[in-house]
Each structure stands twice: as C-alpha cells, then as structure tokens.
Amino acid sequence: MKAAQFDSFGEPTEVLRCIDRPKPTPAGGEALVRMLASPINPSDLMTVRGEYGSLPDPPAVPGYEGVGVVESGGGLLGLALRGKRVAVLNGAGGNWAEYVTLPANRCVPLPGDLSLPQAAMFFVNPATAYLLTAKVLAVPKGAWLLQTAAGSSLGQMVIRLGVHRGFRTVNVVRRAEQAETLRGLGADAVVTFDENRESPADLAAKVKEATGGAVIRHAIDPVAGATGGAAVGCLGAGGRLISFGTLSGAPLAVPARHLLFHGLSVEGFYLGKWMDAAGLPTKLRVMRTVGKLLSAGVIANDVGESFPLDRISEAVAVAEQPGRGGKAWLTIGA
Fold first, then answer.
1. How many domains does the chain divide into?
2. What is the value of pTM for the model shown?
3. A single Gene Ontology molecular function, please (predicted)?
4. I need a surface site. Which of 87, 120, 140, 221 has the fewest CB within 10 A?
5. Hey, is 60 helix, strand or coil?
6. In this structure, are 54 and 165 located in the same domain?
7. CB atoms inside a 10 Å sphere around CB 75
8. What is the pLDDT of residues 235-294, one digit of tens each?
C-alpha cells in the first residue's frame, strides 16, 4: 500500500516521501480502515518536525484525523462498523496511508450528508472549537471571547459559534486583509497585532477601543509566545485564557503580575487528552453535537486544495503558505 512516511524528524518538505508499505493487519479490538482522505493539520507537521507533545519513533506515518471505510474488525464494535464510513480519530498517527489499523472505538460513524473533505476534517477543529467555547470556558450569552489566530479555520468556526450561541468575539489577526472576511462571518471586532513590531500594551489598547472598553474574561490562544502573553494582558479581573497550541514555537510569555494581582489564569487544552478522560456517553454527545453543527452549516471547515499521496512534498508546502485559502488535504482512496 502507499503511505507518506518520514524516516527522521525534519522539515516536512524534505523528509516526507510516498513509499510502499505492507498492508497492516488488525489485532484484537482493532479495525482495519481503508482511508479516503485526511487533512494536513499543524499538529501533523509539528510531529514530522519532532516538535509535538507526543512523538512516534521514526520511521513513521503522520495523520491524526481523516475519513475512511471500515473493512474489517474484531469484537462486537468492529463487526458493527464494517462497511461504514467513519471519522478516523487516530491518536497514534498513521492516517496518511491507504490502510490503517486502530482501536475500533476510535472510529466514529459519520452523517451521510457530509462531503468528503468535511468528513475528513470532522474532528480536530470542529470539536476543539465547540468544546473550548461551550464546555471548557462555557462562554455565556452576551459575553466577550478574545481569540488569536482568528483567521484560521478553527478561528472562523469560533466566530460562527459565537453568532449561533450569542457570545461576542474580538478577533486578533496578523494581516489587515483578513478583517473583511471575518466580519462577513459575524465577527464583532477584529484587530491586527504583530508581536515583532508591537507591544502587549498596543494590543490591549486596540482591544479596548474595538470593544468599547468591555471587560473580557474569556480567551483562547493557539499561538503562544508573545502573542499569547499579550492576549492574557487583555483580560479583566478573574479572566481565563485557554492555550491549545504553539504555532509560534515559543514559550507562552505571561508576566507573573497578571496572575498574581489580577486573578487571571492560564490553562492548557489538548483534545486527545480531553476525549480520553471523557466517558463514552460524553464522547458520543460531543460527536453528535459536532455532526449536527456541521450538517446544519453552523460551522464548516475552510476547504483548500487537495493532493494525492505521491505529491506529499507539494501538499505540505501549500499547507503552510500564508493566506493559502483553505486547509490543504490528501485524497487517498476512492
């Protein structure tokens, strides 16, 4: 079978290649899935670079999410899933291949009305956006939520969820040309911030002006570094920031005085750990809710260009282009 593999950690365009590997055989309790498509997420590329929180031993195949059809499986669940199109929630990676094996309980049946790319991107961004806003922070109706990297696919989902659930969003972006698109989605306020040219005080002043001096007690940040630290400085007393990424590659720079004197808190969120800790009924409710939100068009993945596995170097290069216009994804099987 074909697979995109890296033999050592490094730049994805340099170390990833399409190779032939043996077709895997499922063990007890596992399902064999014929993969149809998989997105190229930042977590995948961080894994290839050796920068993610949990790393495989090379040689390895990336890919934490995707969509496929269950061909075989052991146990009652594996038998029940046979022939079904499923979201492949592969915490160990391996989805950038024609076939993959994983625990059958990591295969989630999908609504039939989802397109192939929407099905491939069903889990990571939609579930993260929903859980952060509705469960972890539980942003109340009418309250403000600040988010960095607001122009990303996940950031756009948060804006749509704000419109749907009635909370307001102040959205931090690096490029001014993103503002019109975000306002069209329902963003209440959009501000630009470049950590290389501006100070945290500059961001706080912009946010204050854009929101009419509103008190902000909820924030989410996938960037870390100086941008994440500046976001903390925009919070009012008792505010919470949830850090869920390290796109900058730098540590989250938070002055201790914010935490000591203003009662602010910074917490981490990792979707895989949250799902592992949740009971089965909770997981099913989350997946059903996300499926309904996608099917109803409340949230949608921003779909970009697709590539076959044998163009993997080109695919990952496009995935990291600024302003690329949608998430790049891999078409793997028919």
1. 2
2. 0.86
3. quinone reductase (NADPH) activity
4. 140
5. strand
6. no
7. 15
8. 999 999 999 998 888 999 888 888 888 889 999 999 888 988 887 788 888 988 998 998
